[in-house]
Automatic annotation (TrEMBL):
This is Uncharacterized protein. The lineage of its organism: Bacteria, Pseudomonadati, Bacteroidota, Cytophagia, Cytophagales. It comes from the Bacteria. It comes from Algoriphagus alkaliphilus.
Length: 78
């Protein structure tokens, strides 16, 4: 359903959702997804993130490594 139709028929859409329907809302001619609307939508599981570049380099990063003094920040130009 296009977003304009969704807005124009909002009351009907609410009733459809109450009856168990799931509505996919898109916008524009390209059909960009706005979202899914429904009663029993399961939240998607968060994606697993990998360490990336440092994973294969054998580097470890500690919180202490990420704390700099004001002087060090000035040397970095920050």
């Amino acid at each position: 359903m296009h977003i304009g139709e969704f807005k124009a028929r909002f009351s009907e859409v609410v009733e459809l959702i109450k009856n168990g329907a799931t509505i996919k809302v898109i916008k524009g001619k390209s059909g960009d997804l706005v979202g899914y609307f429904g009663k029993n939508l399961e939240p998607s599981a968060p994606a697993k993130r990998t360490l990336g570049f440092f994973n294969t380099q054998g580097a470890t990063i500690n919180q202490e490594d990420l704390q700099w003094s004001d002087q060090e920040l000035e040397e970095f130009g920050l």
